[in-house]
Amino acid sequence: MTWELILFLAAAIHGIMLSIAFMIGKQSQQKRFLGTYLFAFSITILYYVNFWSQAINLHFAFIWLGNVGSWIMPLCFYYFINKNAKISNLGYHLIVPILFSLYFFGTRIVGVSQEFYTMGGHIMIFTNILLFIGYGVPIFKTHKPEEINGIFLIPYVSFVLGLLAYKISLMAGFYTLRLDYIICGGFVILTYGITYLSEFSFLKEKIRPKYSSSSLTKEDGDHLVEKINEVLNQNKYYRDPDFNLSTFAKKIGVPKYRISQALNAFSDKSFSSLINEFRVMEAKERLQSEATSHLKVEAIGEEVGFRNKVSFYTHFKKLVGSSPGEFREDHWQKSA
Prior knowledge:
This protein is 75% helix and 0% strand. The chain has 2 domains: 3-208, Rhodopsin 7-helix transmembrane proteins (Rhopdopsin 7-helix transmembrane proteins), CATH 1.20.1070; 213-335, Arc Repressor Mutant, subunit A, CATH 1.10.10. It is built from 15 helices and no strands. The protein is mainly α. α6 (114-142) packs antiparallel against α7, α9 (218-235) crosses α11 (256-266) and α12 crosses α13. It has helices at residues 3-23, 29-53, 60-81, 90-93, 95-110, 114-142, 154-172, 177-207, 218-235, 245-252, 256-266, 271-287, 297-303, 309-320, 324-335.
């Protein structure tokens, strides 16, 4: 076994031990998915170490275990990054790994030609790339740039680029084992590096209150948050689609940075997310009111301040769990 394989083997074993520590005991949902992501990745690395070294002739059930990890990682990464993702929808996310498993076992039990197997391999790799990209789309659509920790997007981008590099090298005919080592080594460094950075952030949250980095005292911060909510509730400034932090700061005579500081430290919300919450709350009231029952759903969204239908539906479903139309229909069915 070469020194490269020994390093990969050590990294895989280390990753498995670390992932188990993340998944056992009383851990947050976010941290459990990070642990599952790391476990799937480590198992995949372990499989490739054996594949490269040909040390053990594995039963195809173990080969499946080594391959299915790459189909589990995208959904785990999605649940780790997206704090608003609902665990109740996990079953839907498992459909693709299940379909892959059916394909995997089916081709080995039934037996297929080499041409079919090769074609299936191409389809699998491109599907896996699209899966990573597909999970990235809702994260970018439902989170503003300042709400996404850029550090944790590094493995997402690197996996997409790495998978593309691997596929292109195969198709172009310049694939080498050394290139495979380099790509895989990059995955290992980034994944374990991000894992430790993530663990550090979890530790910081445990040992330091959220407001410790704020120049506001807790009393002043809570008072400002209360004032912000009270002014918005009374004046309904959020109904203006062009309403923003600068405008609000001028209206209440408080610097922009102070408003953001108070909301982030003492309510765990950004100003934009707070505004959208107010809009959704009023939209819910209007969707349940007889006085506005004649209005279309889109019209209600515009009246409460959403600029377009897409923005209204996206934020409403994120906060309520159903579309505005479904929410209205469900309300009137229960009222009948």
